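Lecture notes, part 5. Sequence design as translation. It can be helpful to think of inverse folding as translation between two languages: the language of shapes and the language of residues. The source text, in structure tokens, appears below.
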């Protein structure tokens, strides 16, 4: 299942800065727009994987994983 997210980006004093709209605390800064988009992709992927591992570890016992679509 491929998920999509929205990057909010802008250029500010020679730097490109951006955020992922749907997930708080993901923000990046790069010299070019292409570099920014790639850094946002990497950071988003790493954050989702970290959150997934953290959620599974927090379960501690037998647990069930259910996909929820909105």
């Amino acid at each position: 299942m491929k998920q999509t997210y929205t990057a909010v980006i802008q250029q500010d004093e020679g730097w490109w800065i951006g955020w992922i709209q749907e997930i708080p605390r993901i923000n990046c800064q790069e010299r070019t727009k292409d570099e920014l988009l790639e850094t946002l992709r990497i950071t988003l992927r790493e954050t989702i994987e970290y959150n997934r591992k953290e959620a599974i570890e927090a379960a501690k016992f037998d647990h069930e994983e259910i996909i929820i679509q909105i």
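The translated text above is only one of many valid answers, since several sequences can fold into similar shapes. Helices lie at 33-59.
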